[in-house]
Amino acid sequence: MRRALLTATLLLCLLAPAAAGAATTHVVRGAGFGHGIGMSQYGAYGLAQHGWDYKRILAHYYSGTRIGQAPGRPVRVLLQASDPYVRFQGATRAPGGLRLEASVLHVVRPASGGRLALYGRGGKRLGTFSAPLRVSRAGGGPVRLMGRAINGVTSGRYRGAFDLYAGSAGGVTVVNALPIDDYVQGVVAGEVPSSWDEQVLRAQAVTARTYALATRKTGDIFDQYPDTRSQMYIGVGGETSRTNAAVRETAGETVTYQGEIATTFYFSTSGGRTENIEYSFLGAPPKPWLKSVEDPYDSISPRHRWSLRFSNARMGALLGSPGTLRRVQVLQRGKSPRIVRARVYGSLGSRVLTGAQIRARLGLYDSWAYFGKARTARASRSSNRR
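Predicted structure:
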C-alpha cells in the first residue's frame, strides 16, 4: 500500500510540470497605430517640434507633391440617417421664403409621397416640402441638431445648412452642407489636440481639406461621413481659436501631385516608418506620393511600441485557425515592415490572411507586428521573425 502511494505521488509530480507547461500565451509585439499610409500625426507633431514648417512636413509624407488651391466646392456631410424624425434649433430660413424662429425647437417628420412635414412652435405644422428641405440661419450662424449624430456628438452645432431628405424605411436623413473651410474647422480639432504645435495644426488643415475633396462621393446625397470612415467632423463644438487659425492661415490650400488633388491618407502613429499604399491596402494601385518614408520623431506617441497577449485558444479562434493553433508565420512584409500576408497554421491545416485582416481580427493597433510565445514564466520567440 505504501509503495503504491509513493508510486502515485511520483507520477503526479512528473505530470504536474507537463500540465503547467502545456499552457501557451502568444505575445504580439508591435509598433504604430493606424494603417501606416501618408502622414503620421504624431510623427508630424515630432517634426514640428524640431522646427519643420507645415509645407516641409507635407512634402515629407507625400512624396513629390506641391501646394495648390482648392476649388470652391461645398462639402456635404451625413449627420443622421433615416431617423424617425429630426429636431433642430437655431434655423431662421426655410424654402419658399418661410421664416423660422431661431429659439424654437422645430421637428421634421416624413410625409406621404417622399415629402417632409415641418413643425414649429406648439407642434404647428408649417408646411410640407419636397426633398431636400433646406434650413439655415441668416448670417451664416450655426444650427443645432438635437439628438445623437453619427459622429457621436449629441445636440451639436454645425455651420452651413441642413439638407433633409426622406430616408429609407420612412425616416428622415440630415446632411450638413457647408463651405470647405468651415468643414475643415470642424475636422482639425476632431483629429488632433488643439494644444499641438501650430505647424502640425496647419499640416492637418491642409491634409483634411485635400482628403475631403479627393474622396467626394459623387452621385450620392452626401460626400463625407462624420467619422473615421471619412474624417472625424465634430462641428462648432470642437472648434478652438488655435485650430480655426490654422484653417484660416492655410485657406484653400491643398496637396497636389502633377497638378491634381492627391488623396492624402493620414493616421495616428507610424512606429518609425510609414508604408507604401499597395502593401497596406492590398489591391490598391501604387501611388507615387504614398511611399514609405522614415519618421524619425514618432517616438513621442504612446503607441510607438506596444505588446498584447492572447491565450492559444483565443488567438486561434480570432484568426480562424483550422483546428488547434500551432503558429503564425509571416510570409511577406512591406517596407515598414508591416505584415502584408501571413499563414496561420493549425492542427487541421493552414490559411493565409492579410496584415489588415490580422490587425482587425486580433484588435491590433497596427499590422507592424511580430509573434512570439510565452510558456509559464519563460518567454521564447517564434522562428517567424523576418
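Summary: The mean pLDDT is 91.
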